[in-house]
Specification:
Number of strands: 11
CATH architecture: 3-Layer(aba) Sandwich
Structural class: alpha/beta
Strand content: 15-25%
CATH topology: Rossmann fold
CATH superfamily: Alpha/Beta hydrolase fold, catalytic domain
Largest sheet: 9 strands, mixed
Number of helices: 9
Radius of gyration: 18 Å
Length: 305
């Protein structure tokens, strides 16, 4: 990352003196990792062969994923966490918001919780780090279900397109805007990211309530890190069985080359979801869960051969 932009990230890492107070839908736990303190939940069948790992796409929090989690926990063990600098997870001063640092959070989380046979079911900003994790740790990650994610170069183009006048991607300016206007920007994001005419109040109200409770929304730092990320695409190639879901009504990805992600997934396929926009895991949780089951079943079939 360019050295001049790095200090701007410190704005999103200023410690909070108030105790985080997430909703009580799930029992929250926290893990202290090398460069972050991560909020997570652990539910479902602890004896299940596969563990499904989820991360909400900000400004969503774990609570936004309630329906999906309740579907998956009937069959799998489920770990849901909030990325460093988002929701109720905090980033240390040394955290850089890069793909590598995001991947390290996932790896350390899985290692500390002693997770094996993980299916990473992550979308948008978490999906590229998921590929790096799968590339680095095939001994832990056995399958992938991703959503709304193209190749790294296409993701950078997307970030530039959705950033109004480049303000969010501008060091310091973006952080300050998010600091003071995050409620308005979250509502605007939902307006653009959801189906046209969809009632976004449930999404917005829950996100705004999480802000009141101490949640973070370090979108500017994440965008700036993505635009300057230099991870070689060869390190993002994951050979595990994979499904990539694309909501066909996602206006933010209208110009994205969606099939570009397959260059990183030799054993992957794309499934398009009608009547779905940017959040397939939240908008169509049953469809998303079915894809997780499909990956798990493909692993069982492979093991029988």
């Amino acid at each position: 990352m360019n050295c001049y932009s790095y200090p701007a990230l410190y704005i999103d890492k200023i410690p909070s003196f108030s105790k985080p107070n997430p909703e009580s839908v799930f029992h929250s736990q926290w893990l202290n990792l090398e460069k972050s303190r991560v909020r997570y939940i652990r539910v479902g069948n602890s004896e299940a062969k596969n563990t499904v790992v989820l991360m909400p796409d900000p400004p969503n929090t774990i609570e936004h994923m309630e329906e999906l989690i309740k579907i998956l926990e009937k069959t799998f063990q489920v770990i849901a966490f909030e990325g460093a600098g988002f929701g109720f997870s905090t980033a240390s001063l040394s955290y850089s918001f890069t793909i590598e640092d995001n991947a390290d959070v996932i790896i350390q989380l899985l290692e500390k919780l002693n997770i094996k046979n993980a299916i990473l079911a992550l979308t948008c900003i978490a999906a590229l780090p998921a590929l790096l994790v799968a590339n680095k740790r095939p001994d832990i990650v056995v399958g992938l279900v991703l959503g709304q994610v193209p190749s790294l170069n296409e993701a950078k183009c997307w970030a530039k397109r959705v950033d109004f006048k480049g303000l969010i991607g501008t060091p310091y300016v973006g952080q300050i805007l998010l600091r003071f206007l995050r409620r308005r920007l979250a509502d605007t994001w939902y307006k653009n990211a959801l189906l046209k005419g969809a009632d976004r109040n449930l999404y917005t109200n829950r996100a705004v309530d999480s802000f009141r409770r101490g949640a973070r929304f370090s979108l500017a730092s994440a965008f700036q890190a993505l635009l300057r990320d230099r991870t070689p695409e060869s390190e993002l190639i994951a050979t595990q069985n994979a499904i990539v879901l694309w909501g066909t009504s996602d206006k933010t990805h209208k110009k994205t080359n969606k099939s570009s992600i397959l260059s990183l997934l030799p054993n992957g396929k794309i499934i398009e979801l009608q009547n779905c926009a940017h959040f397939p895991d939240i908008e169509l949780p049953k469809n998303f869960a079915e894809c997780v089951v499909e990956i798990a079943e493909s692993l069982s079939s492979k093991n029988r051969l």
